[in-house]
């Protein structure tokens, strides 16, 4: 994997000690403090071993420009986003590389509305970062560092205000959860128990590092699958290190895939609210969502990949729900316009309780598609740009969507090819009515991409 620093709409990330260093982090934090202005800035992190080091670097950078850091410690990414609004902060910095391997870390920047910076805001921040900066505050202007108390309580209260928690409690679900030793680990078991669930949680030690590969893909969830299958649980949940992604497991221990998380959550919100409105998902989202949305009488819109692109479009469309299918990222603005595994868990449990059906039965009632994800290593923007350019030329007759890479649709299948914002790879998402067709489609485009690169 390339160790070059990656600066994108998703933040700043790199391999610790190579492209990402404490001095760089401190300077980015100072630049962000200059951008948002002297005042309260929240700081949170996931459980990576380098998190404490970078937390201190962020604090130093913020203090140097007159900000008052409010330290949330290890909390889920959506917790910080909600706390920014509740505590009326100027913004926030999250220290987390999400599902990247442990040797990576990153900074994610949140504005005063509790959402990530959009392209224009990120450009303004980079302009400040790229200028020589000498306007550090005098000693008399340094602020005290504040330690926030119970920030997750803000998060939990927002969710509980929007769901029928008593209905869920009456169902007494038996739930297993894999927290990946991540930022959700200190909170997930208690959160589910407050919803009346009997809970068994694994990978909950925030001091051990990641005991499985961070991405909550089926191949990485063997321990949870075995637990659910042998323990006769109603459902299994899996989080990523910063607890914004959610993957579901059936009562048989089968990982249902990131796409189904969004399919079920959106279906339930549309049933629950009984409103016709707008739904926004990204280009990598299964067509099953479109089928459900149209059946409900609502409208669907597609955005570029990336949480901020989805949330920005949701605000424009005044969407009632949305998300990113490829990451299991549920976004329910009634709670907060951000991806949130805890909101996802609450919605799925409420759906099971309100329907009085098992997760297996609910899944069987949903439109059926098979989605296959693949990727091709591709270091350097010139190579990835060449791939997209040549594919656009070759498939121009299909009238592809080129707003983010290239998505090509046929009547019964589609494929999306795009450079990753977070890794030095080109991602391929292929979907069809059968797994074999989707696999063949993904393999075909992987072969085409490799030929272009070579």
Key terms:
454 residues; alpha/beta; Alpha-D-Glucose-1,6-Bisphosphate, Chain A, domain 3; TATA-Binding Protein; 3 domains; seven-stranded mixed beta sheet; five-stranded mixed beta sheet; 15 helices; 20 strands; 38% helix; 23% strand; globular
What is the topological layout?
Blueprint: E1 6-8, E2 11-15, H1 22-36, E3 40-45, H2 51-64, E4 68-74, H3 77-86, E5 91-95, E6 104-110, H4 119-129, E7 146-147, H5 151-160, H6 165-171, E8 174-178, H7 188-193, E9 198-202, H8 222-231, E10 235-239, E11 246-249, H9 258-273, E12 278-282, H10 287-296, E13 299-303, H11 307-317, E14 321-324, E15 329-332, E16 336-339, H12 341-355, H13 359-364, E17 370-377, H14 381-394, E18 406-409, E19 413-419, E20 425-432, H15 435-453
Parallel strand pairs: 3-4, 3-5, 4-7, 8-9, 8-10, 12-13, 12-14
Antiparallel strand pairs: 1-2, 2-6, 5-6, 10-11, 14-15, 15-16, 17-20, 18-19, 19-20
């Amino acid at each position: 994997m390339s160790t070059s620093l990656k600066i994108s709409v998703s933040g700043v990330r790199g391999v610790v000690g190579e492209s990402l260093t404490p001095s760089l982090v401190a300077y980015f934090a100072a630049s962000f403090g200059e951008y948002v202005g002297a005042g309260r800035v929240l700081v949170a992190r996931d459980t990576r071993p380098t998190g404490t080091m970078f937390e201190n670097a962020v604090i130093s950078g913020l203090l140097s420009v007159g900000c008052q850091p409010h330290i949330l410690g290890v909390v889920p990414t959506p917790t910080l986003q909600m706390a920014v609004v509740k505590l009326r902060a100027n913004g926030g910095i999250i220290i987390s590389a999400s599902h990247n391997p442990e040797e990576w870390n990153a900074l994610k920047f949140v504005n005063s509305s509790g959402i990530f910076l959009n392209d224009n805001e990120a450009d303004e921040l980079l302009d400040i970062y790229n200028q020589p900066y000498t306007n550090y505050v005098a000693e008399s202007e340094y602020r005290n560092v504040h330690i926030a108390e119970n920030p997750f309580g803000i998060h939990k209260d927002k969710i509980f205000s929007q769901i029928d928690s008593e209905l869920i409690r009456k169902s007494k679900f038996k739930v297993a959860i894999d927290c990946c030793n991540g930022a959700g680990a200190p909170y997930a078991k208690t959160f589910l128990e407050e919803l009346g669930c009997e809970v068994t949680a694994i990978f909950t030690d925030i001091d051990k590092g990641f005991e499985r590969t961070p991405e909550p893909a089926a191949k990485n969830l063997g321990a949870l699958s075995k637990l659910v299958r042998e323990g006769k649980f109603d459902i299994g949940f899996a989080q990523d290190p910063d607890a914004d992604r959610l993957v579901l497991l059936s009562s048989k221990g089968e990982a249902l895939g990131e796409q189904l998380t969004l399919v079920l959550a959106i279906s339930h919100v549309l049933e629950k609210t009984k409103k016709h409105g707008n739904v926004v998902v990204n280009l990598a989202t299964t067509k099953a969502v479109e089928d459900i949305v149209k059946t409900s009488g609502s409208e669907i819109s597609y955005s570029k990949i990336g949480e901020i692109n989805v949330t920005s479009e949701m605000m424009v469309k005044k969407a009632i729900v949305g998300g990113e299918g490829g990451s299991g990222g549920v976004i329910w603005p009634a709670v907060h316009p951000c991806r949130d595994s805890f909101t996802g868990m609450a919605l799925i449990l409420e759906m099971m309780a309100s329907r009085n059906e098992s997760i297996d039965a609910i899944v069987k009632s949903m439109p059926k598609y098979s989605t296959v994800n693949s990727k091709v290593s591709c270091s350097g923007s010139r190579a990835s740009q060449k791939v997209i350019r040549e594919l656009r030329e070759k498939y121009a007759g299909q009238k592809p969507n080129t707003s983010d890479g290239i998505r090509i649709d046929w009547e019964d299948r589609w494929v999306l090819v795009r450079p990753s914002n977070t890794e030095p790879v080109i991602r391929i998402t292929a979907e069809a009515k059968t797994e074999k067709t989707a696999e063949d489609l993904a393999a075909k485009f992987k072969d085409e991409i490799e030929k272009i690169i070579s």
